[in-house]
Each structure stands twice: as structure tokens, then as C-alpha cells.
């Protein structure tokens, strides 16, 4: 009896020792810093994807029209005809000829694009009542005047802001792409300096993205009405005459920011957090190389 009991006790001790050994082996094979590395890579992917998506989409701002204010501003000087479930207004002369002056349409724009918020079918329907053929989207990066034909040029001061925001956005994309390459090199080649530079580059990308967001957010707050009537932007107006005949109606436009701007703010925050994680990762790798984390 005593021998059997002693044998059972020894067997249990061996099993417990084996389990402890396996658990110790598992704890030794996966260093806690590995989870920090994985978290850094996941957050990096999310930050890069979100910021790139915000820059490449064209819903940073939207242009709509206040119907009640339009009716008040028209005041019988021109005739307004609402079309497409009161989303588009046809402005014509208030006489027997009923000559089309302009179409007041909703639009949405990105950093370097401006698009009509109309489907192809809606544009075809408007063509039956005199809507002129214009490109559905204008790309300011295309260069030349072909893409801008049918749209009134912007004022000089707004040109400068538009070009500055485009420049900052392009630099941000370049920095993000470079940071991804440098970060991959630093992780796979165990280069601490490359990992540290990656953190700095993500902070730099967040700074340029912040400049772009700030410009887009504030560029509509200082429109000069007297200048706008003659030279300013006519976002929301499609007319062969530009602003002539509808200048007094421009006050009814409503400029609002859209979801791309919110996506950009989220991307900036994630980029700052990513920068902090990469800098901390470089400190961790100084004392715990990646090869020792995995082994």
C-alpha cells in the first residue's frame, strides 16, 4: 500500500513538473514586448489607412442652398424653378423669354477635387431643360483650363490656400509611404535608429495633415462678399455667364464640412499615437532585441 501511494505521488509530481516546464517554456518563448510590437503594427496600419483614405476621398466639404433664403434674395428679379425634388434650382430671366441664367446645384469637394452631387441620370434629366455639359468632377491637379471649363476660377487668395492644402496633403502621403518602408526595414533588420526615425516621420505626417485640415476648415470663414461677386468662387453654380446675374444669390449658399474631414482628424490622432508607440518601441529594442523577444 505504501509503495503504491509513493508511486502515485511520484507520478503526480512528474506530471506537475512537466506542466510547469511547458508553461515556463511558453512564457519564455513569447516575450511581453512582442505584444507591444504587434499592437504598434496594428495601430500603424489603422493610422496610415485612415489618413490616406481621408486625403484621397472627396467629401471634405459640401455646398448646398438655403431654399427660403433664395426665394427672399430673388425677390422677383429672377425666376426660380426647383427641380429634382427641390435639390436643384434653375435661375432664369423673369420675362416672356424665360432665358436660363444658371443652375444652382449641390456640390461636394475634396482637397484637389470638386464634384457635382448629382448622378449621371439626374444630369441627363437636367439636360432636357438646358443644363450645360460640364465635367462631373474637376481635378485641380490636372492642370490647364480644360478641366475647369464651365466653372468660374477661384479668387487669388483662395487659390493660394487651395494650393497650400494640396502641397501639405501630398507631402503627408509621401512621408507616410516613406515611414512604412523605414519601419519595415527597422523591424526586420533590427535597426533601432530606423525604428526611431519611423516614429519621428509619423509625427511629421501628422503635422502636415494638421496643416491641411486647418486650411480646409478655415478657408470659408473669410470670404469677402464684394470680391466674391466679381472674382470669387461660384461653387454650387453651373452657368456659362459665371456669377453674372446670380451674384446676389450667392449669400444663400451653405458650406458644411463632411465625413472626410472627420476621418482626417481621426487619422491625425492615430498618427500621433503611432509615433509615440514607435519611439517607445525603439527604447524597448535597445534592451530587448526582437530576436530575443521571440526566442
TrEMBL record:
Lineage: Eukaryota, Metazoa, Ecdysozoa, Arthropoda, Hexapoda
Keywords in alphabetical order: Membrane, Transmembrane, Transmembrane helix
Name the UniProt record assigns to this protein: Uncharacterized protein LOC115879312 isoform X1
Origin superkingdom: Eukaryota
Segments crossing the lipid bilayer: 34-57, 164-188, 194-216, 263-281
